[in-house]
Design goal:
Elements lengths: L2 H26 L3 E5 L19 H4 L11 E4 L6 E5 L21 E5 L16 E3 L16 H10 L5 H26 L4 H12 L11 E4 L21 E10 L2 E10 L5 H17 L8 H18 L7 H7 L1 H5 L19 E3 L2 E3 L20 E4 L2 E3 L2 H9 L8 H7 L4 E3 L2 E4 L6 E2 H9 L1
Parallel strand pairs: 1-5, 3-4
Antiparallel strand pairs: 1-2, 2-3, 6-7, 7-8, 9-10, 11-14, 12-13, 14-15
Bound molecules: glycine (GLY) and manganese (II) ion (MN) (2 copies).
Length: 442
């Protein structure tokens, strides 16, 4: 994937953004779309700033992720405009002059202060849909985030353009390279902190660049779904390693999880291989027209089957799903949309006008309940965990007798397993970007 691919696919992406914006404005009764890139935020009672996080509605238009105080201005029928803030500032590195494949498609106006934007915004502030945070307001141009406009854009963000998929492939290239480095560090006996640093070094990204905080858990820590503590010292005995870590490429994210056993001949390794094989079968269900909630429920059946076959729970897999027993071992959703945001927006939207499709009863953490369309990119991330709190609930519940507690106790020290890939829904077979990314390293 070269920059050329991005340059050649970008015009169609921008054309789609323009046509979506046109229809969104029509629905909301607005004449112009304004999207401020966002502002710098500060710690309370302090002059220390938080890392800048660009407004996703802004980076959807152009690969600009380090430009606070800038604006996208779009009036249907006119060329889109970027007000590009390049401040006079000798304390910080200011953004370079606008450059790259996106520039020729815009009227780019360099401004030197945020207030200078006022000279270049459409005259009629009342006819603007302004998508952004309150702190981006200048003059009468206060973000109003009209629901009709936001819902329309968020609904259609589910389908990615070729350009966006190329961007996500780039992010995946950084992520898989770093996952390999992390596994090497684990096998060499590094601490969680040391593995995290090896990952960042290989990805060439740190906390400010990564799309979410790395989850790097050894042993029991693998059972904590969002474990971000990172012990500085390795444990005396190293048994297992779960890493859920992504990477970014100009504002697009990847989200990858792998689980490794230190002893690759033991029963935890076998369990990992079973979850891995099931994950691939679930990925194969990412097909146009499929209800993603069904993919989630099927994943429960897959995990329950593994629990049954491994002698962990003596109960028919279907009953495990119906009674909620499988949810004690697999307590999160099977995945989510991904793109400009790791948990990309619109997962519950019933239509382009709004409305919400609730997750199935008993599955509150599922983040995507829509039918899949070609161009949708989703994660598939099944797991089996031996989490203290949930095992306790199971032990105190009515199905405790169906659980082989000796097996659970033998597996607790390994924490848990999650395998996560990103899959593109197409008109035909799904495309697993993560597996393709790892295969390209071999
Ligand atoms: N890394 C967060 C998730 O997998 O959804
Ligand atoms: Mn995920
Ligand atoms: Mn993840």
């Amino acid at each position: 994937m070269s920059t050329q691919d991005l340059a050649s696919t970008y015009p169609a992406h921008l054309a789609r953004m323009q046509s979506l914006a046109e229809r969104a404005l029509e629905r909301g009764g607005f004449a112009h779309l304004l999207v401020p890139s966002g502002t710098i935020h500060y710690h309370l009672f302090d002059d220390r700033d938080y890392p800048y996080a660009v407004n996703p509605q802004f980076k959807a238009w152009a690969p600009l992720v380090r430009n606070p105080g800038s604006w996208l201005v779009y009036t249907p029928g006119e060329r889109p405009k970027i007000l590009y803030l390049q401040p006079y500032d000798y304390w910080h590195v200011v953004p370079d002059a606008p450059s790259g494949y996106w520039v020729e498609h815009f009227d780019v106006v360099v401004i030197r202060t945020p207030e200078e934007a006022l000279q270049h915004l459409p005259a009629e502030a009342g006819r603007c849909a302004i998508l952004g945070e309150a702190s981006s307001a200048v003059g009468d141009y206060t973000p109003n985030n009209p629901a009709a406009v936001v819902n329309y854009l968020e609904y259609h963000r589910a389908v990615k353009t070729d350009y966006e998929i190329a961007m996500m492939r780039r992010a995946t290239e950084h992520g898989v390279r770093a996952h390999r480095a992390a596994e090497r560090a684990f096998r060499a006996g590094a601490s969680e902190f040391g593995i995290h640093l090896a990952y960042c070094q290989a990805a060439r990204q740190d906390a400010n660049d990564l799309p979410y905080g790395n989850i790097v858990g050894l042993n029991e820590h693998a059972a904590v779904l969002h474990y971000t503590e990172r012990d500085r010292v390795p444990p005396r005995e190293i048994r297992s390693f779960l890493i859920d870590a992504g990477a970014s490429h100009d504002g697009y994210a990847c989200d990858i999880t792998r689980t490794h056993a230190y002893d690759t001949t033991g029963e935890f390794q076998q369990l990992i291989e079973q979850v891995d094989a099931a994950e691939l079968r679930i990925c194969d269900r990412v097909r146009a027209g499929t209800d993603y909630a069904d993919v989630h429920l099927h994943a429960h059946l897959e995990m329950a089957t593994i629990l049954h076959q491994a002698g962990i729970v003596d109960m028919a897999p279907e009953s495990m799903v119906e009674t909620g027993v499988s949810a004690k071992f697999f307590p999160h959703g099977i995945g989510h949309y991904i793109g400009l945001q790791v948990h990309d927006v619109g997962g519950f939207l019933a239509s382009e006008e709004g409305g919400r499709i609730e997750p199935p009863a008993g599955h509150p953490y599922l983040r995507l309940t829509r039918r899949l369309e070609p161009g949708a990119v989703v994660t598939i991330e099944p797991g089996i965990y031996f989490a203290e709190l949930l095992m306790k609930e199971l032990a105190e519940g009515e199905h405790a007798g169906a659980v082989n507690w000796d097996r659970v106790d033998a597996l607790r020290p390994y924490g848990g397993i999650r395998i996560e890939d990103e899959v593109v829904c197409t008109d035909g077979d799904p495309v697993n970007m993560t597996r393709e990314g790892f295969a390209a390293l071999d």
